[in-house]
Amino acid sequence: MPYPVPPSRLRPPRTAREVSRLRPLGLVEAAFGKSPGVVLAAGPGYGKTSLAAEMGGIYLALAEEAKDPAVFLWHLLYAYRDRAGLSEAARLLEGGAWPRALEAFLEALEPLGPQLLVLDEAHRAESPGVLKALEGLCRLPSLRLLLLSRKAAPFAFLTVLTEQELAFDPEEAWALAKALAPELPAFEVERAHSLVRGWPLGLRVVLLAMRRGLRPELALESGEGLLTYLAYGLPQELLLKAARLALLGEVPEEEAQDLLPYAEDLLLERRPGRLAFHPLVRSALKALLPEAEARELLAQAAETALHQGEGVRAAEFLLEAGRFGHAADLLLKEGQAWLERGLTYTVLRLLAHLPEGVRRGRTGLFLLEAEALRQAGRYREAEAAYQRALEAGEGRAYLGLVRLFLDTVEPARARPYLEEALKRFPEEASPLLAENLLNEGRPEEALALGLSGPRVLLRLGRPDEALALLKEAQDPGLHRPPQNHREGTLLRALLECVAGDAEEGLRFAERGRFEAEVLGSPFGVSLAEARKGHALLALGRPAEARGAYQTALALAEGGPARLRVEALGGLAALGDREAYGEMVRLARAAGDLWVEGFMTLVVALAWLRRGEAFPLPPLELLDPFLRAVAQAYPFADGFEGLLLRYPFLAGRTLFTPPLPRLRRGLWRLGRLPEAYHPGVSVEIRTLGSFQVLVEGRPVRLRREKARLLLALLAARDWPKEDLLEALEPTFRTPLPWP
Length: 738
Description:
Elements lengths: L21 H11 L4 E5 L6 H8 L2 E4 L7 H11 L7 H8 L3 H12 L5 E6 L7 H11 L4 E7 L9 E3 L1 H4 L3 H11 L5 H11 L3 H12 L14 H5 L5 H11 L3 E3 L16 E3 L2 E3 L2 H8 L4 H17 L3 H10 L3 H17 L3 H9 L3 H5 L3 H12 L3 H13 L5 H11 L3 H14 L1 H14 L3 H6 L5 H6 L3 H10 L8 H6 L2 H11 L2 H18 L2 H17 L3 H15 L8 H9 L3 H14 L2 H17 L14 H9 L7 H6 L13 H10 L13 E4 L5 E4 L2 E2 L5 H12 L4 H8 L11
Helix pairs in contact: 3-5, 4-5, 6-29, 8-9, 8-10, 9-10, 12-13, 14-15, 15-16, 16-17, 16-19, 17-19, 19-20, 20-21, 21-22, 21-23, 22-23, 26-28, 28-29, 28-30, 29-30, 30-31, 30-32, 31-32, 32-33, 32-34, 33-34
């Protein structure tokens, strides 16, 4: 598989298990009875990993880089590589379409039957996308998910067991003492248990120190003070060697032969061919080394990691060594490649550890941060970072700003930066010019510059061809938010609403929302709600459509102005004239004349289907499809040629004419199987005051008794005698009954 996951992350460490912890195991089993997912949330040393190892299952330890959902999914694929058919998920993930890969992965897990998945160090991988992936895992009825975390808050949607449940009780403390130091009297074991307040790792360290002759006096409830007990009675040279090796966190077993006799005292964790130090032990031992020596050793470890191709680990060693300049240089050299691999959150995390003075001397870091923020969908922060890079003299920030405003579909804002980029980087800026021309509503010029794809066909007035092309295409890769609406699922949702089936448009809008949530893209989530509103509007479900559009507007707050355009247009289609004016203003401010014409016609058709007139304003429509629809509006006699050119208008779409006019047109084309009758739309409202509407307009029945009869029949089914009795005060003669 393309992304390398260290094998050591796929096996739980082998630690001493002198005590079988039946009490907390029972608590975990009981928790699984209430929830498909359980979290063991406690600080280091509370025995979370040891407890999970007793339960078996598939084990996976996570690192900071797994904050990126694509990397997290690669870890899952490695963990299940011998258990499930994952070729489809791997194919999608290799293409970057990881939200779709997650769906394929979940489908591959369904036939496996009951299973337990243990995710260790889950707090290190916390991110919105990973949380959405965990929610997806919890939907599998056969999967039990056990998270081991130092924090409970991110995983509050699952059942949480805390330090209180995981701490040793007196009985467990006595059992551990009998295994480690049977010579200790009960009162000393009780004292040790009291000093550590049930902390499992602390109790183990104190008992081992007591076995070596120490009498505990200091309370030990956390990593502070651990060294006092850990080092007691052990040779100083051994401790110094352990400290040097502990800096690496994990070392080959042959390099630590001298430590093996003391593995129990040092709480070493055994992994295949390697020894690992508990994080708290590592921190405590590090304090034994002079600062200069520790820094030198960490720098050497970074050099070794670089030679082994582990650049991210090397950067982490350099940061820990305080060699911020070297870490910054490594980020400058490798950071862009890491972004291309999808390590967005990793790059942002490493940059956050660099002091401001180090950044100031390396202006390329401003540009790297801007690129990472844009890739994460944090557009406001990205714009500020690009501006800072420009001020520092980084000319490539012009390209970044153009890409940013292509992502947010704001061609007017992109234009001045594009002009500068074309002067400085003509080859790289030329494709960006083509896409910006497309966003301005000039698709022929974009096509002449070599741009192609479904969006080009849509704006060329060929939505049916655009939809067919998108259906045939492989997933374009959704590893960053902009692609979700530019080439992927949300574009499919829009095209289905224009030239396909609105029911399919609704399905893809809901899928697009899931993908956007997984990608952590508020932009995508808002746009997904707007596209959902379009589908509901075309399906004739106005109340639900209004709710979707209002949600889209709320989510768009604080985002690019262009993001509000479709939602405002949708509300205008439902009768809000003020929303229409705001929609036009924002579309023109963004410089996207195509979307102004598109949404104006959506509004006009929606009003017409309700039986209301919407006078079309003058529109500059270069799109031949939109121009043909505008010319046919309001679809009086003679518009049949439009149905011949665009037969999809007879389906459930945003541009479908009112049903009576559509039927008349199809009848004239000889495409109705029965004789044409224009018909009328009759609506009877019984909620509140009784109303009858014909073609959307209220009507008044000539006779009050006819109105009453209709109201009674609309309320429920009546037996003849009961109906006559109910009408008796009104009718003096019985109604003739068939």
